[in-house]
Amino acid sequence: MDRSPTNGGLPPAGSSSSSSLFSDNLKGLLLAVVSSAFIGASFIFKKKGLRRAGAEGARAGLGGYGYLLEPLWWVGMITMIVGEISNFVAYMFAPALLVTPLGALSIIVSAVLAHFILKEKLQRMGVLGCVLCIAGSTVIVLHAPEEKTPSSVEQIWDLATQPAFLLYTASVAAVSLVLMLHCSPRYGQTNIMVYLSICSTIGSLTVMSIKAIGIAIKLTIEGINQAGYFQTWVFTMVAITCIIIQLIYLNKALDTFNTAVVSPIYYAMFTTLTIFASAIMFKDWSGQSASNIASEICGIITVLSGTTVLHSTREPDPPSSTDLYTPLSPKIFWHIQGNERGKHKDDDLLSGEFFTVVRQDYFT
């Protein structure tokens, strides 16, 4: 006599579910690795494009936008977009605790490629700093609170307009404006933290907006249209604005500083601030144990230590002066006679101390 499946059939179903879960995790793992490879390589393509554009006109670090006409820069942009899409799809198959730490692989990819392709030497202490950044970020991610996914755009709007997150948003806006309007023109070319702080702080708001847009798209696909809610379009405009600002200042950072230093610092700061913003918005820290919170603090300290080591081992960048001539020796000066005729101190215009070095690129 045939029997319909009963509880006795649960083990096979459980086995099938376990196998499916393993398959999904494997897909997420592979997509995350591919994403890191594409994103890491994109830094190199964009850097080479920025160099080419800078050789023909104003550099991005000095406010130029010639890189928008450079094909190699667009190859880098497309490569980065493909990597970000792969990363987004990876989250559909695997949990964040598996996917997010693998983003650190992009640092290794960009550092290795920069060493061989861009000839940007990574010092031994720089390797140590890179390891510290990866280790600290991994600790932060592994102990980060699990997010409670909102079920509608209106719900995430309520989370975004709560006093704590509004205060965070206002702080990010104020700090970013100070960095962009005051610090960037004065210290942007000499301090790597200026450009990357702008990218990272603005980037944390970008992620929050992208999450809202993702929820809207998902609900719309499921048959619950979210296009009619004004919140969806507010999040869209915020995301577009933040992404544009990020791209501008990330290009400036890549054009001005060593890629092997930019990548890990940007990753570490962006990851830390994103987790912090998410914790404030979704109030995930309220349910965490003291040990998890302590682990996250240790991870942040480790990241800051790695950032300091990387910054201190950065190779000096060549001067970006546009003068045609180098300064004259301090031993040379002119004495103006009464007849306005210039004479050298020792009346020897052809003295060995008198020379002028003309930039080679002036003749190319």
From TrEMBL:
PANTHER family: MAGNESIUM TRANSPORTER-RELATED, PTHR12570. Acts as a Mg(2+) transporter. Can also transport other divalent cations such as Fe(2+), Sr(2+), Ba(2+), Mn(2+) and Co(2+) but to a much less extent than Mg(2+). It comes from Phoenix dactylifera. Keywords: Cell membrane, Endosome, Ion transport, Magnesium, Membrane, Transmembrane, Transmembrane helix, Transport. It is found in: Cell membrane; Early endosome; Membrane. One of its GO terms (cellular component) is early endosome. Homodimer. One of its GO terms (molecular function) is magnesium ion transmembrane transporter activity. Belongs to the NIPA (TC 2.A.7) family. The gene is LOC103702654. The keyword S-adenosyl-L-methionine does not apply. It is a multi-pass membrane protein. This is Probable magnesium transporter. The chain crosses the membrane at residues 26-45, 65-82, 88-118, 125-144, 164-181, 193-217, 229-249, 261-282. Pfam families: Mg_trans_NIPA.
